[in-house]
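The aim of this short unit is practical: by the end, you should be able to scan a pair of folded records and say something sensible about each. We start with the first protein, listed as its amino acid sequence and then its structure tokens.
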Amino acid sequence: MSRRRSTPWIHRWSRVLIGAIAIIGALTTGYLTFTHFQGQPVACPTSGCESVLSSQYAKLGGLPLSLFGTLAYSGMALFALGPLAVNATENRELRKKLEESTWILLLIGAISMVVFSAYLMFLLFFKIDAGLCIYCIASATFTVAMLLLTFLGRDWPDLGQVFFTGIVVAVVASLGTVIMYAGISGKTVASSTGSPGFLPITTTSGPAEIALANHLTQTGAKMYGAYWCSHCHDQKQLFGQQAAAKIPYIECDPNGANAQPDLCKAAKIQGYPTWQIQDKLLSGTQALTELSKVSAYTGPQSFKNLVEGAVPPPS
């Protein structure tokens, strides 16, 4: 009499584990997306997080990369946990069909995310050189874990087909990633402030913006940033071309024009942009009304661009 082989624990729990990791990833990237649109600094014990999230590599098509990460993780969670919502006793065939179809989707999704994460790790350590970014490393760890659980989480009937599919998906994902970033890597243009920058300042200044910029300069305020920082660009967009040229700006990246990295280190700047107004440090893109309040500016307040979202996109 033969004894039925018990199901390995990893086969029983693989979908739950993949779903749990995907949900954590979606919550993490969702938080980063929220802070981006709110113009707030992220909670991070190192300076690398804000530097990476402010770089030109942190956006695709004008949207934060974290938004796409949220969608990808949410899709993985749906593929992993969706079939489990079907009652196996009452709808056995439907449950089986859903599990079969979603396993291949999990495999494709996990491989694509690992390839993309690998490229982001390359950018982190060799292009941005921003130090430790715990969100980036955590996301890369999540994607690798989901791929391992997908591969080990079931008895694949044809391993040869699995490896062939994996190679095709990896090649396509690699080409897609390179193409998406082809217009970004190594590309800079001249900004209106005379420093190299990824995007030019396209908004115009009104009398209020110019008056505020002059006031900030006269009172000794400083804006610390980097030429590649997208949030720094957003801040300059709020001021407009004419006022942005008057901002008391300090370039922190050694490769930027008129760089003063020693001043940034002395001020213990951990993210860009950071405003130093008297004894206060303000991190992230600041509304002009907030800069007026903190710096005790009493001039005209009829600012043309009040919030980041009101800034027209570069042409």
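Turning to the second protein, read its sequence before its tokens, just as you did above.
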Amino acid sequence: MNTKTTGVAAIIGASLMWAFEPIFAKLAYESSDYLQTSAIRAIGVAVTALVYVVLTNKGNLKVTRKQLSVLVYIALAGTMVADLLYLFALEKIPVINAVLIGHMQPIFVVLIGYFLLREDKLTGYDYVGICIMISAGLLVTTKTPANLTAMKLGAAGDLLVLLATVAWATTGIAMRKYLRQLNAGVVTFYRFSIASIIFVTYLLLTSTIILSSIYQILVGVTVGVGTILYYEGLKRIKAAQVSALELSTPLFAALLSFLILQELVTIMQIFGIVLLIVGVYFLSRKEEAYF
């Protein structure tokens, strides 16, 4: 396969893995809590990444001091903060809410690039895309016209996922800016092994680490495979294309949550998914000129 085809296949594969992640997490919560699951998940991802490094990079985990500092940031912001907020919120909100809000990252990538990094100017396409994606989020979190009219904008869990999304956006920018040349398995290994050390230390001091369900392991494996595929895809195709392809995750998640967890999706939420796709299209119109 050529570079573009490989990149597209990698992102679709990552999207499928990330659709399974919240399903396995909710199943794991039947016998565990989000903190125990987060610890087992981080260890599972680190082991999966290490296997990938052995197979593709001859086990070479060498990084520069500058790269290590970025990896530490990604581990803390992406895993210790964002992932933990996401998994905590999953105890309280439906899968489709968590997945769709999590895929509003392009909004924050654009805003961070403009306000903090001063790299790009916002265009008319950006403003339209941002407004459409915010509307998509409102439709998904409110679920029904009655809730929207009454301004019941969602639960606290929805807000936690939104905060996680902002943190993920910063790590995505950091990875693209400083770590594009690193093996995807190496990036994934450091991100989750650093988090694993922190999780294990905390749990050993406060309680114990309990493996109570196979689903805890499956969460780690799916996230490990998904993260590696995402990083591999990110190195091969444009950021705009990555953002567009990632939108298959909410579609996969809606179907899987209905089939496995019997979670229903309202008409408004389906319309919200469609709006999300439209919003990313408008944001991508500007991005394509720069990648």
